[in-house]
Design brief:
- It contains 5 helices and 5 strands; from the N terminus they run E-H-E-H-E-H-E-H-H-E.
- With 111 residues, it is an alpha/beta fold.
- The protein has a 5-stranded parallel sheet with strand order 2-1-3-4-5, sandwiched between helices.
- Helix 1 packs across helix 4 (85-98).
- The protein is globular and about 30 Å long.
């Protein structure tokens, strides 16, 4: 049985992106909802790990965290902050539809 990827967006990700993903029936929790808006990157990383969520971010500090702590539920890294929201939504939606949560563990997807 496939387990769908759940996502966690850090403070660098717009509410518009999270809303657009939710409109595609994708489980996204924002750092504001987790009451972690001003938390450190380590705290975000640990929260995502503990709640079995892949991180959506454009903060390259998470790439270092992923290399230092190779056990995680995956990272969707938005390379260019100017990438159009529709492009990100399309790619995340494809990832969500095609990749099982277990398969995405410890992976980084660059958008």
């Amino acid at each position: 049985m496939n387990v769908l990827i759940k996502f966690y967006s850090d403070e660098h990700i717009s509410k518009a992106l999270s809303s657009a993903l939710r409109n595609k029936v994708i489980d996204v929790m924002t750092c504001q909802e987790a009451e972690l808006r001003t938390a450190s990157d380590d705290e975000h990383f640990i929260f995502a790990q503990n709640t079995e969520r892949a991180i959506i971010t454009n903060d390259n500090d998470f790439l270092k965290l992923a290399s230092d702590q190779p056990e995680h539920w995956g990272i969707v890294y938005i390379v260019n902050r100017r990438t159009d929201i529709s492009t990100v939504v399309k790619r995340v939606t494809q990832l969500h539809a095609l990749v099982d949560a277990e398969e995405f563990r410890n992976r980084v997807e660059y958008i």
